[in-house]
Structure formats: C-alpha cells, structure tokens
Amino acid sequence: MKNQLQKDVIEWDVLNWSYALRVWQPVVDTFSKSSKVLAIGERNGGLSLWLAMQGFQVTCTDRVGITEHAKKIHRKYGVADNITYEAIDIVNDAPATSAYDIIIMKSVLGGLKSDYGNAATRTDVVRNIAIQNIYSSLKSGGVLLTADNLQGSNLVQAIRNAKGKNQTWHYLSIDEIKTLFSIFHQTDIYTFGIIPTRFSVPIINKAVFILNTILKRLLPVSSSYISVIAARK
User: Fold this and answer.
1) Residue 69 sits in which domain range?
2) How confident is the model at residue 38 (pLDDT cuts 50, 70, 90)?
C-alpha cells in the first residue's frame, strides 16, 4: 500500500495501526464482493476507503455522520459510488438484524458512551450493548473486524497520564476483550505496538516499527497497546 493511501486509511500512528490491515486482509479475502459491509465510527472514512477500493459496497457511518473530509478522500480515490453514508450510534441505534457480512471499526470501543455529554456513561455495560448490537447485525458466519486501544506498557500509560488521555478513553485489557467477545463463535486476537510510530521523521518511524516487530517476540502481550480482532458469528 502506498504511503499516502495508508495514511488516508489509518490516519494516525500509521505504521503500527496498519498492522490491522495485514491481519484482516486474509479474512476479507474469504468474502465475495457482493457482501454487505458496515463501517462504524468512521468519521474520516478510512476503513470504508480501504474496503471500497477492494470492490466492496460499504455503508460508512459515524455517530453524528461522517465528515466532508471522508467524502473528499472517497472521491479522490474514485470509490464514492461504492459508498453510502449514514449516522449510526452503535450504542443507541441498533442496525438492521442479520444484515451484514462484514462489520469493521477502529479505535471505537474505548470511547463509547450512552450519553456523550456524560463521561460517567463510558461503562462496561455500554460496551456490551454495542457488541450485542453488532453481533445481532451480522449474518451467520459474518465477521467483526476491530482494532482497539489496549492498556499497553508502563511507558505508554505514563505518556497517556501526562496528556490526560485516561480521562477521555477506556483502555482495554486482553481479559476484558475475551469477556466482551465471548458471544462470538470464534474470536482471534492479535496485538502489536510497543512504542508509538508518531515521530515527525519518517525514517525514525520505520526504525521504531522494525523494533516493535522484534520487541513483540520478546515482551509479554500486555506490553502492546493495539489489539486487532477478527470475531466470527
């Protein structure tokens, strides 16, 4: 994948989070192009772009609707005709039952709330409601593809604390994920990312990415801050 396309799909911390695409691609390849696809929490439309460029028809959604930037990049890559847009709150608006073959999202679960004006509604119950809604919306044999933020290493947690991010997001543990996804017939969980690839110099990001691939084999799973999941109904 070319660098700019990868950036338009992933948006931030691109090299680390693009690990998700490598995990998901073999799963996506098992579905026909006529499969129904729902992309959740899209805002800027990156994952919708990725799937539309593979020939899928994608329903691109966000809680309050996607941005104009999303439509712009979809036109830029010539896939606007493959994409429709809706506003869906996956907690409070359950999509149609047994409607989709593939549901995909990135960095969504940790931010979910039932009332977006009240941080106290970012709870386990709310995340469970969202997963139940997604499960109900999948056809039998359908798959949820999601990449989410894990707690990560002490270093990553310290950086988040310094920036106040722990107040605005819930960072999952592997045990939480296993419980949350227990409804699915099969859930494959992968992890990646020890050190973020968010440096301003591309060659440093590449070096850090290579280092991460080495550290992944040496350090415990709990050191990673990205989970990549394929959950089959």
Assistant:
1) 3-232
2) very high
